[in-house]
Amino acid sequence: MRLNQIQMRDPFVLPDADEGCYYLYGSTDPDIWRAPGVGFDVYRSSDLRQWKGPFPAFRPEPGFWAERNFWAPEVHAYKGRYYMFATFKADGVCRGTQILVADGPLGPFAPHSDGPVTPADRECLDGTLHVDSDGAPWMIFCHEWVQIVTGTVCAVRLSPELDRAIGEPVVLFSAQNAEWAQPVTSPSNGTGYVTDGPYAYRCETGELLLLWSSFKQGRYAQAVARSESGTILGPWTHEPEPLYESDGGHGMLFRSFDGRLRLALHTPNRTPDERPVFIELEETEGRLQVRE
């Protein structure tokens, strides 16, 4: 299969140099908004063009707590195992990110944390792993606008085993801190400012960037924030314009085996037309731009 044949939101690429292949994860249920959750699929490729799959990476066992909104799986290699950070939802339970684990990138992944590691009283999504310069793991996630009107990006320390949060979350910034971000209106949730899809990236200069997404002029957009301290706690400043604003976002960065830096995101931002797209970037003195 080629990328334009794969319906997927929130794409995440895990390069595996030992195997010489790439693994592609994402929100792969045909209707992630209303239908009961099925699980997550993974695709595999040696050249980023032709993909084999789908392979079932996660299927919930009977009695699994979540019912729907199986969103945004990311898979990180950490201390010899593979950890999936994924968002789930159930009636009467706040949406949150749970951590799953497997011995290999194909899975099958099984619950590792006891339910979500995001706060139980907050509607949250899109948890991602960040390991700081001291080797301490953090989860960066979004507190949803549907609960607080102006969405925020937060961070919380994780246990060394990645099975629970340690301490209280810290707010890194809100959507309105970016001057370009504009509100959206939903028939069920009203009007508010969206924060989606955080992903931390350490530049060759040592600067720490954070990718995240919101909306500009009604279209999904991929943004970049910069830590003034070089740590996850910021303070964070925002690039004046999105990196990509053609109705695509929820991106992450990876290097292909030839060393090229690539942005993975989905576009357009409508179901069932969304597809994963890879865009080559240039990194110059801690700044990212689309390669011409």
The main pleated sheet reads as: 4 strands, antiparallel
Let me know the average pLDDT.
Answer: 97
Give the % helix: under 10%
Give the spatial strand order of the biggest sheet: 1-2-3-4
The oligomerization state is single chain
Number of domains: 1
In CATH, the architecture is 5 Propeller
Distance between the termini: 27 Å
What is the radius of gyration computed over CA atoms, rounded to a whole number of angstroms? Answer: 17 Å
Rough outline: globular
Number of strands: 22
String of helices and strands = EEEEEEEEEEHEEEEEEEEEEEE
- What structural class do helix, strand and pairing data support? mainly beta
CATH superfamily: Glycosyl hydrolase domain, family 43
CATH C-level class: Mainly Beta
Query: What is the CATH topology?
Result: Tachylectin-2, Chain A
Detail the poorly predicted runs. none
Number of helices: 1
Share of β-strand residues: over 45%
Overview of this protein structure:
The structure is a single chain. The protein is mainly beta. The chain has a 4-stranded antiparallel β-sheet with strand order 1-2-3-4, with no helix packed on it. It has a 4-stranded antiparallel β-sheet with strand order 5-6-7-8, with no helix packed on it. Strand 9 and strand 10 form a beta hairpin. The radius of gyration is 17 Å and the shape is globular. The mean pLDDT is about 95.
